[in-house]
Design goal:
Blueprint lengths: L9 H43 L9 E7 L2 E7 L8 E9 L5 E3 L4 E8 L5 E7 L6 E3 L4 E8 L13 H5 L14 E10 L5 E11 L6
Length: about 210
C-alpha cells in the first residue's frame, strides 16, 4: 500500500486518491500566484522609481564618428542632471602617431533640438571655454559640453517641458518614454571661415528633470 494509507474504507480510499490528484494542481496555482505577485511588485517598483526620478533613464546612448582629423569621437550624455538641459561628454581618441591639440583652433559645436517628428525646437552654438590640451598618440581625452534645454518660446507642444513631465498613469508616469533628438555638428573652420571638416552626431534624450 501507498505510504499514508492504513486500513481505510473504500470511500475513504477514494477520497485519499482524489486528494493525491489535487495536490499537483494546488502546487501549480501556488507557484502561479507567487509569479504574479513578483511581476506586480516589479511593476510597482518601476513606477515608483519613475515617479522619483523620471529623467534617470534618459541615456545610455552614444553617437560615434570614426574619423575627425585623425580622432575617433564618441558623444554621449549624462543620465543625471541637476538642471534642465543636457551635459554631453565628447570622448576623443587619438588613433594616430601624432600629437593632437583639442579643442582645435576654430572648432565650433552647433546643436539643434528636434522632436520625434523632426519639428525644430531651436538650438544654438556652444563655445569651448577649456584651454587647449594635448592628446599624445594612442591616448584619450574628454570634453564636457553643457547645453541648455529647448526654448520654451517655441510654439510646438512636443518641445514644451510640460509635454515631458506630464503624468498619466495613476499620477505616476506614462510607460511611453518621451524624448527629444539632439542633432549636433562639430565643425573645423579655416581662416577663410569655410568648413574644412565636420562631425555629425545624433542622440535621443529627455532634457528636462523632474521638479
Amino acid at each position: 500500500m501507498a505510504k499514508g494509507y492504513h486500513s481505510r474504507s473504500p470511500e475513504e480510499f477514494q477520497e485519499y486518491l482524489e486528494s493525491i490528484k489535487r495536490k499537483p494542481r494546488s502546487a501549480f496555482w501556488k507557484q502561479f500566484i507567487i509569479f504574479v505577485d513578483i511581476i506586480i511588485i516589479m511593476v510597482i517598483f518601476y513606477l515608483v522609481y519613475q515617479f522619483i526620478n523620471p529623467g534617470s533613464m534618459n541615456l545610455s546612448q552614444k553617437s560615434i564618428v570614426e574619423d575627425f582629423q585623425g580622432l575617433r569621437l564618441s558623444l554621449s550624455a549624462s543620465q543625471i542632471s541637476a538642471n534642465d538641459g543636457a551635459v554631453l561628454y565628447l570622448v576623443l581618441d587619438n588613433k594616430t602617431k601624432q600629437l593632437k591639440t583639442i579643442p582645435g583652433e576654430n572648432w565650433k559645436f552647433q546643436y539643434t533640438w528636434m522632436t520625434e517628428n523632426h519639428d525644430n525646437c531651436g538650438g544654438g552654438e556652444f563655445t569651448f571655454s577649456q584651454k587647449p590640451q594635448a592628446i599624445p598618440p594612442e591616448s584619450t581625452a574628454l570634453l564636457e559640453i553643457p547645453l541648455p534645454p529647448p526654448s520654451q518660446a517655441v510654439k510646438i507642444e512636443g518641445c514644451k517641458k510640460e509635454h515631458f513631465t506630464e503624468r498619466k498613469l495613476f499620477g505616476l508616469g506614462s510607460f511611453k518614454k518621451r524624448i527629444l533628438i539632439l542633432e549636433t555638428n562639430l565643425l573645423q573652420k579655416s581662416s577663410e571661415n569655410k568648413s574644412v571638416d565636420e562631425a555629425k552626431f545624433s542622440i535621443s534624450l529627455n532634457p528636462y528633470k523632474s521638479d
